Amino acid sequence: MEIIVKENELQAGKAAFAIFEKAIKDGAKVLGLATGSTPLTLYQNWVESDLDCSDLTSINLDEYVGLKPEDPQSYHYFMQKHLFDQKPFKKTYVPDGLASDIPAFCQEYDQLIKDNPIDVQLLGIGRNGHIAFNEPGTPFDIGTHEVKLTENTINANSRFFDNIEDVPKSAICMGTANIMASKKIVLMAFGEQKAHAIKMMVEGPITEEVPASILQKHPDVTVIVDEAAASELT
Length: 234
Ligand code: F6R
Prior knowledge:
Strand content: 15-25%
Order of helices and strands: EHEHEEHEHEEHEHEHE
Largest sheet: 7 strands, parallel
Bound molecules: fructose -6-phosphate
Low-confidence stretches: none
C-alpha cells in the first residue's frame, strides 16, 4: 500500500485526480466511482480539467434502496451533480435502488462488472472501517448484495438528510470481492474521525471486522489522506 499524506483536502483531491488522469491517459476505460463527502475535491478537479471522458464507463459502488434517481439524496443524483452533468461519460452505472427483484439485480451487477473489469476503483472509508457499504462482519468474498445499514452508518449519513428517520435502512452495494478484483484502487480519507479506521486498515490484522483491512492483500492500492486522518499511523 502506498500512503500519500497531503496538507488538506484540496491538495489530496489534486493528487487523486492526477492518478486518475494518468491512468486514463495510459488506457484505463472503466472506473469504479464513489459518493460521500470524501471524493468532492477529486470531482471538483475533474470537472475543472479538460479531460475527455466520452470514452469512459463508470460503475458506482452503491445506492440506497428505495430512492429514485432524481431524489437529491440518491447516489445517482450525487454523481450527476458532481461529475456526469459536467463531464459526460460514454456509459454510467449506479445500482438501481428501485429494483423490484434485488437479488436478480445484484447478479446482473456482478455480471456487468465481469464484462467491464474495473481499471481504477475509488473508495472512501467509514469510521468503522467499511468500504462501500460493506459493513463490519461482511464476508470478504461477497459480490453485489443488499445490506442493512448499521446504526453507526445511519447516524453518520443522517447529516445529508432533514431527519434521521429519512435515512434509508438498506442499500445495494458492490461487494468486497468486486472491489478486490479492480486492477488499481485509490482510497481517500480526511479528518481525525477517520484516523482510527485508517490505522486499522493499514496496520491492523486482516479481519472481516474491519472490511478495509482486506486492501492489505491488493497489489496496487494508493491511500491519500490528510494529516488528521494519518495521525494514528505509526
Ligand atoms: C460511498 C461509499 C461509502 C463512503 C464512506 C465515507 O459511495 O461507498 O463507503 O465512502 O461512508 O463517506 P464520507 O466520504 O461521506 O465520509
